[in-house]
Amino acid sequence: MSDAPLLSIDGAERVFGGGRTLFGRTRPGVHAVQDVSIDVRRGETLGVVGESGCGKSTLARLIVGLDAPTGGRIVFDGRDLVAEAGRDLRRLAREVQYVFQDPVASLNPRKTIRTILEAPLIHLLGLDRKARAGRLAELMEAVNLAPEFLDRYPHEFSGGQAQRIGIARALAADPKLIVLDEPVSALDVSVQAQVLNILDDLKQRFGLTYVFISHDLSVVESVSDRVAVMYFGRIVEIGPVRTVFGAPRHPYTHLLLQSAPAPGRRSLVSEDANTELPDPYNPPPGCAFHARCPRGTDLCKERQPVLESAPGEDGHKAACFHPHAGREAGKGEHVGQG
Amino acid sequence: MAEASTAPAPAVRPAKHRSSRPDSLRLLFNNKLATAGLLVFALIVVTALLAPVLPLPDPDVTAPADRLMRPLSEGHLLGTDALGRDILSRLVWGSRVSLAVGVSATLIAAFFGSLIGLVAGYAGGRVDTLLMRGIDMVMAFPYILLALAIVAVLGPGLLNALYAIAVVNIPFFARNIRGIALGLSRREFVDAARLSGKSHAQILFIEVLPNVLPVIIITMSTTVGWMILETAGLSFLGLGAQPPQADLGSMLGDGRKILFTAPHVSIIPGVMIFILVMSINLLGDGVRDVLDPRLKSGALTRPVARTAVERRQVPEGATPAPGAVLDVQGLRTEFHIGSQVFRAVGGVDMRIGKGECLGIVGESGSGKSVAAMSIMGLVPTPPGRITGGVALFDGEDLFSVSDERVRQLRGLAVSHVFQDPLSTLHPLFTVGEQLVEAIEAHQPLSRSQAREKAAELLSLVRIPNPVERLKAYPHELSGGMRQRVCIAMALAGEARVIIADEPTTALDVTVQAQVLSLLDTLRKERNAGILFITHDFGVVSAICDRVAVMYAGQFVETGETGEILRAPAHPYTAKLIDCVPVLGEPDRRLDAIEGRPPVVNDLPVGCAFAARCPRAEDDCRAGPIALTEFAPGRQVRCIHPLIGETQNV
């Protein structure tokens, strides 16, 4: 049983809009997430990277049940997550929680921290007053905040402190899985490190599983065990973070890694503006990255590549007809270094 | 870490919270008209409430013998009406009725209107459509006609008039509240509440309602006066208060017939209505100004065209360093808010040569943007002011030249590229129109020449199909394209220095890399200096020749980019580099910086970083520390710098 993945997403799809109007005309639909299949194992951190508009936040909302997929299945711990979220979000919320990108916007400006943190204790766990007081103290200690902060209002906190409160709220119901949607991108670098360290510490202490979504490759690399790269609503590459970042197979992952700024590294890419994403209302039949891809051929234009394992590299999959060479040939080509 | 965050926050915080209510009251009293309105309104309310105990004659007792007595007659201060009733007494009792009806109608309308608005805004979709179309139907009738129709159905009477007025005003509340609720319901804290296990009703009334309440109060305060007028209107038409009951509207109606023989009978209630409604409206406007967050945040104070320069001493004969296009020396910029002085920039020297790129690195609140905005006087005044230093551009002090000269130089000599291209570009004009405007502001070109130049600029920033793209609106372009347009605008006037304030922070990594190399190429092609502001050492590496690290309004370390990254001298720089994960080094321990930066209205005497510094000793806190040169081209503001020690990565 423990070998079974904690979360298993199978062919998930989310289309916004679409359907037909009152008069039978088809409405244009945007495929935010298409045919995404991921397994998240117990105790691991799965990183999800991608640029804005690639569907990573939509995927996050599907996992916590804030949004329902228009196709595919999501199974959490052997139970159908979509059906459960539709019936009663509370049961799911006890086990799957969410940390928001903007820490201040995710806290109601007119509630004290105590009220905010007590909500999950009352509504999800049904604790009485005494038990709540004990749990609040534990939570504040876990995220390293002084207990006297409980009676303050969100605007009195800095971004880093507010994010720690957001993390405490996610922890409150003692979940198994936490989805972190760009948890540090709104924070200053010095504070970012504090929050990342706390997240790491909590994971060890409470045996949590994380889905960590970010556009920052270096942050994802430092926190994740495995990483999924998304482009235009699909997963283009997935595998252990060292393999994916060390010897990327998909040309898009290559481009991402080359573009990431790092201290002591001059820019490497050309300055051409040829970066337009395909029209989301009218997606190309083939690979969405084709127009930007240096390796693209006519085959890529016509057919959608599927996620396939590289020979000899289990668990490292890429959706590309002409992938870069894997680990063996890629040695010494570590693109992370300038 | 534990120590830093468990330590109680600065003492100002609780005090600030406690004083937030008196603050709003004080704001209200600052508004003289609103205060006058409040006083008059309070006087009327108190008088109306005290009507039963005041020594007034019965307002309904007729005395035909004393009919139509003039004001100031004996026993009748304001005279009597056609039936000999005391006008003063009727006025007080009438105000009581009008107020009661007006206020109750407002409360009823506010309750039902807000409820409809909240539900419609929160639920959205079909419920929203259904409710709001219903509201639209109510609004489609002229309100007075609708009120008349309601009273006609229910029959005349004060209570029915009250219902009619309440119903007629429900749409006003519903529409206002729905808009706010719609915005709030899509906010993250609502999702967070759902994940905390709250039901929809709980979210609506516990999470959303408190945030809508100020708007409800504002809407109420601006509607009460209107409702009183409407009540008076219905009573005037004989549909409200029924004889003999006094009400301001019915008094006015009674007096109408004898307007020419005894004008005081109608003028007195008319004046009373005017005073009452006027006082309420003045008060309502004041309340709105205090509660409306947009007005509170300073939308009413209009900043002047250029930052005020109030230098304590004007440096004489400052000469620019050789080879520098822009040489800023000892810049100080302060914000004066109330009695507090925020020293955002406390003595900064920036020197940019031809084609050179100087990076300013710092966390948010370190003053890097304010320093850059000060150069061309773009810091809003009030509350900002430049209190020291010179900015020499080609030997000309930008802080002492005329406003007109600064206006000419902006965009021509020194131009800006900001973080968010979507808010920098005007959404209603095509990028071509905006580029042409920027070109024409500085060059006397004909329209077609300017268009040609605009297309040239777009191709300069590597936008494909420049002539076609001129016709595009900003929302039709991707983020990277928009930022390219902004860079093209910055180049419109042959700028010698470009101030780029986090120009790539809002962009995706692949686009960021492209924009960075574009900027890098352009500065070489056009020999323009760049002042590049960022918080990211990775971005700095990609483009900057020299770096200045800023902390609490001062540079703590400057030097050549590679040198600083290789061997930072200031403990803050070292920590800042250490706390950022680096691609390709996933196992590196992230060394967080304890604590938080100091608040710039309460800076310590000594080193501002001492409280967070592992190397701090007593002498660090004793007094100001100067920026000293310890190697050619390297300066550090530290008396225990990390010099000669190898940095272990």
TrEMBL record, chain A:
Transport in keyword set: yes
Main location group: membrane
GO biological process entries: peptide transport; transmembrane transport
Domain ABC transporter: 7-257
Keyword annotations of the record: ATP-binding, Nucleotide-binding, Transport
UniProt keyword annotation of ATP-binding present: yes
Coiled coil: none
Pfam families in UniProt: ABC_tran, oligo_HPY
Location of the protein in the cell: Cell inner membrane
Segments crossing the lipid bilayer: none
InterPro entries in the record: AAA+_ATPase, ABC_transp_ATP-bind, ABC_transporter-like_ATP-bd, ABC_transporter-like_CS, Oligopep_ABC_C, P-loop_NTPase
Top-level taxon: Bacteria
Single GO molecular function: ATP hydrolysis activity
GO CC annotations on file: plasma membrane
Family: Belongs to the ABC transporter superfamily.
Name of the molecule in the record: Peptide ABC transporter ATP-binding protein
Organism lineage string: Bacteria, Pseudomonadati, Pseudomonadota, Alphaproteobacteria, Hyphomicrobiales
